[in-house]
Automatic annotation (TrEMBL):
Residues annotated to bind Ca(2+) 2: T194, D238, T241, D246
Stated role: Removal of H(2)O(2), oxidation of toxic reductants, biosynthesis and degradation of lignin, suberization, auxin catabolism, response to environmental stresses such as wounding, pathogen attack and oxidative stress.
Binding site for heme b: H193
Keyword Glycoprotein carried by entry: yes
Name of the protein in its database record: Peroxidase
Organism whose genome encodes this protein: Oryza sativa subsp. indica
Site (Transition state stabilizer): R62
């Protein structure tokens, strides 16, 4: 009996240690001695980009999500395709919609000028996404740092790991669960759809014949997104305040005005309805949960033993 307990304790410790080791590679003070100005350089670069075009904040936030969900937050999404290498940029969820690569390049150039070969592209993207949220009126948080850059990227993993706009609730819960993120994390992170734009092709089926859509909202969106043609025409995801990071996204869901089928699945008589109502009525609770979930998503790392580096140019391996 005693031996069994020892085995259980050892097993639990092993699980805790494994979890701790993965997160333990990151530290909030990672660049304190190595590149003390990195946070102000990234903030200034993002402030400039968002001032020039507020949507860029949305685009960089989405880029971070699409990086972290594919083999961890390792800047794999930033690698360009070459004649003999196919990366993630042209995977289905990314092609013709993920944007802002040149913003990360410009920030990386500034960071390299200050601290050569020190700060990973993955950390620059993590800080840029955090600052994007705050610059558009959302919360800020202390970001753990020390991520490293991948030597490769996976188009098939990008196609397989990122949810699509037609996903149902069970699929969303499973796909986030596969990354160690809870349904609550998933519902909070989806609040990122308070920002940005989407192409007609991603929401057409929702505004034509989706049972759970507000009729006036569907009619409004149909004006720019007809039954055929106009696939690339953009519409704001949050019908109320597309350039402000607020909790209007959840109020939209309660009114059946979510733009994607996947958005409305969070408020469709299922397990997330109560939380959606809470976030709709409590901006502070949403902001706090969003920040916590971003830290958890940002702690997704490549599998132990994966070769990594600090890239000099975010678009290619050294
Ligand atoms: C829950 C599952 C999710 C699905 C199914 C989903 C799907 C989509 C789709 C289809 C678009 C429009 C892309 C296009 O126009 O082709 C989009 C845009 C966007 N997504 Fe998501 N997304 C999800 C979660 C997230 C998360 C977790 C974040 C960030 C934390 C995020 C941030 C964004 C942002 C900010 C945009 C607008 C980007 C821009 O304007 O450039 N999404 N999403």
């Amino acid at each position: 009996m005693a031996t069994q307990w020892v085995l259980v304790v050892v097993a639990v410790m092993a699980v805790l240690f494994a979890g701790g080791a993965a997160g333990g590679q990151l530290s909030t003070r990672y660049y304190d001695g190595k590149c003390p100005n990195v946070q102000s350089i990234v903030r200034a670069g993002m402030a400039q980009a968002v001032a020039a075009e507020p949507r860029m904040g949305a685009s960089i936030l989405r880029m971070f999500f699409h990086d972290c969900f594919v083999n961890g937050c390792d800047a794999s999404i930033l690698l360009d395709d070459t004649a003999n290498f196919t990366g993630e940029k042209n995977a289905g969820p990314n092609a013709n919609s993920v944007r802002g690569y040149e913003v990360i390049d410009a920030i990386k150039t500034q960071v390299e000028a200050s601290c050569n070969a020190t700060v990973s592209c993955a950390d620059i993207l993590a800080l840029a996404a955090r600052d994007a949220v705050n610059l558009l009126g959302g919360p800020t948080w202390t970001m753990q740092l020390g991520r490293r850059d991948a030597l490769t990227a996976s188009q098939s993993a990008a196609n397989g790991n990122l949810p699509g706009p037609g996903s149902d609730l069970a699929t969303l819960v499973t796909m986030f669960g596969n990354k160690g993120l809870s349904p609550r994390d998933m519902t909070a992170l989806s609040g990122a759809h308070t920002l940005g734009q989407a192409r007609c092709a991603t929401f057409r089926s929702r505004i034509f014949g989706d049972g759970n859509v507000d009729a006036a909202f569907a009619a409004l969106r149909q004006q720019a997104c007809p039954q055929s043609g106009g696939d690339s025409t953009l519409a704001p995801i949050d019908v109320q305040t597309p350039d402000a990071f607020d909790n209007a996204y959840y109020a939209n869901l309660v009114k059946k005005q979510g733009l994607f089928h996947s958005d409305q699945e969070l408020f469709n008589g299922g397990s997330q309805d109560a939380l959606v109502r809470k976030y709709a009525g409590n901006a502070g609770m949403f902001a706090a949960d969003f920040a916590k979930a971003m830290v958890r998503m940002g702690a997704l790392l490549p599998a132990a033993g994966t070769p990594t580096e600090v890239r000099l140019n975010c678009r290619k391996v050294n």
